[in-house]
Design brief:
signal, hydrolase, globular, 419 residues, single chain, pectin acetylesterase activity, secreted, Pectin acetylesterase
Length: 419
């Protein structure tokens, strides 16, 4: 009986690992298999720990459809909330879910048949790990806060506002954001003493786009900050000399009507597509912002720098799946990408209100996974983990501007290796 229970648990955890780590990957990535070492899986989901996974149910936002706040297919948006307790009862952490984007009618029609475009396909409950964990030994600074994951079902980082009647598509990301915030304010967030808006991947971009809007929800006396995890998507030149991400974002912004919701401080100066890139936004954000990113972001390597379109001969195939197989020339190209990232954050780094944790790993999204957020062998920069760095920054215990030395100097990374 125990062996059967163990097998079932392993199967559940495999599904959970794939779901959590693929949070930033678009539809093209859905069939990819992620390999992490056995130790990392154990640390992340408690196979070697007596602590059970915290599973939090889905709540649909009733009445959101009356405000036009619906998923791509017209279904109600949703969220998962685990109430705070003790000293954290009046503190709120909002995690915006990631999951790529859709930039064409065809892609969005497909997307509405998945959990990324319809609440009909969303999990009825999901695990809260990493920054969402309720255990102090897994999440020392935020474990007893009100912790929320706002589900992502619009395909434009919660920023679109339009529709395509012929395809029965609703681009209502901005309205979902507003309806979600209104719902949470009614749930008690209006009286928060402190609040943190976070997000991973496309959700990390959303946390940048909505950071100052989030600040405006609260009185000046409330401590409010924002965290972007793996959201620093760069307007970089790919291996073919083109700009894959710019082409992708151009489609997203135009199709979903995001222009009207992008920061005016940017759109008054630049083309709206360029204002979907964090590098053109972050210097004008007034609210304290923490950027957590891998310098060799696994998603950007696969889908931006060396996508199938940019690499038709598959010269980057092995390197994309496993960094250990990269050629010297390919590593040199990736070092150039890292330099672009460091250049993009120069302005943010000048203010001590902001925080940085840029490690030299081949990873994507490090705040939601337990093994990369806070564990015995978590990634570190100068002997400090991601969780402690974010906590030190949020509570103003010490300034945090941690930038790793270039690959391959960091032996604490939990690098992603794909099939």
């Amino acid at each position: 009986m125990k062996s059967m229970q163990g097998l079932c648990l392993v199967l559940v955890l495999v599904v959970v690992v794939f779901s959590v780590v693929q949070a930033g990957f678009g539809e093209a990535e859905e069939e990819k298999v992620l390999y992490v070492d056995h130790r990392a899986v154990e640390t992340n989901y408690g196979l070697s720990s007596p602590n059970p996974l915290l599973m939090v149910p889905l709540t649909l936002i009733k009445g959101a459809d009356a405000k036009g706040a619906v998923c791509l297919d017209g279904t109600l948006p949703g969220y998962h909330l685990h109430p705070g307790f003790g000293s954290g009862a009046n503190s709120w952490l909002i995690q915006l879910e990631g999951g790529g984007w859709c930039n064409s009618i065809r892609n969005c029609v497909y997307r509405k048949t998945t959990r990324r475009g319809s609440s009909k396909f969303m999990e009825k409950q999901i695990p809260f790990t990493g920054i969402l964990s309720d255990k102090p030994e897994e999440n020392p600074d935020f474990y007893n806060w009100n912790r929320v994951k706002l589900r992502y079902c619009d395909g434009a980082s919660f920023s679109g506002d339009g529709q395509d009647e012929a395809s029965q598509l609703y681009f209502r990301g901005q309205r979902i954001w507003l309806a979600g915030m209104e719902e949470l304010m009614a749930q008690g967030m209006h009286s928060a003493d402190q609040a943190l808006l976070s997000g991973c991947s496309a959700g990390g971009l959303a946390s940048i786009l909505h950071c100052d809007e989030f600040r405006e929800l609260f009185p000046a006396t409330t401590k409010v900050k924002c965290l972007s995890d793996a959201g620093l998507f760069l307007d970089a030149i790919d291996v073919s000399g083109n700009r894959t991400m710019r082409n992708l974002y151009a489609g997203v912004v135009k199709l979903q009507g995001a222009q009207k919701n992008l920061p005016r401080s940017c759109t008054d100066q630049l083309d709206p597509t360029l204002c979907f890139f964090p590098q053109n936004l972050i210097d004008n954000i007034k609210t304290p912002l923490f950027l957590l990113n891998a310098a060799y972001d696994a998603w950007q390597l696969q889908e931006s720098l060396a996508s199938r379109v940019a690499d038709p001969n598959n010269d980057w195939h092995d390197c994309k799946l496993n960094h250990a197989r990269c050629k010297v020339s390919q590593i040199q190209f990736l070092q150039g990408f890292r330099n672009q990232m460091l250049d993009a954050i120069k302005g943010v780094s000048k203010s001590n209100k902001n925080g940085l944790f840029i490690n030299s790993c081949f990873a994507h999204c490090q705040s939601e996974r337990q093994d990369t957020w806070f564990a015995d062998d978590s990634p570190m920069i100068k002997d400090k983990s991601v969780a402690l760095s974010v906590g030190d920054w949020f509570f103003d215990r010490v300034g945090v501007s941690a930038i790793d030395c270039p690959y391959p100097c960091d032996n604490t990374c939990h690098n992603l290796v794909f099939k």
